[in-house]
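One-letter codes give the sequence; each number marks local geometry. A record appears below:


***
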Amino acid sequence: MIILAPAEQGPSLEARIRSFGLVPEPVTGGERLYWQGYSYFFDLSGGILADFEPEELEQITAQIGKPYGAYVSCESMDAARAFLGQVLRGFDGLLDTNHFEVLAACEFLDLLARHPRWDWRRTPSADLQQDGFMQGGRRHR
């Protein structure tokens, strides 16, 4: 997943993420976190933006201005839900689920609250229904 913030808010987002107690990962140059029984990997360099297509960056820039991106990888959907539920609270930015969706952080958190078992890898947000999930989904990047 990629957490996207306006560039001027990048340092604030980094500080928010680092407050969880990240440790350097010397082999990859990223950082690791072991939190609440889960394992995470982060790249806070902002270099993840190079993986976006130009039209994707244009759309993101239209929404939040020049972006800063923080890459987050975790071991499971439960780990992702736990971390994102904490770090995105009160955050005014976007989340790229890495599965063809870029959602406002508040919209993502609202979907998680309404659908606590939502697996965005398999079910796009547009397919969520009040009474359950429809099957579907696509892989991104």
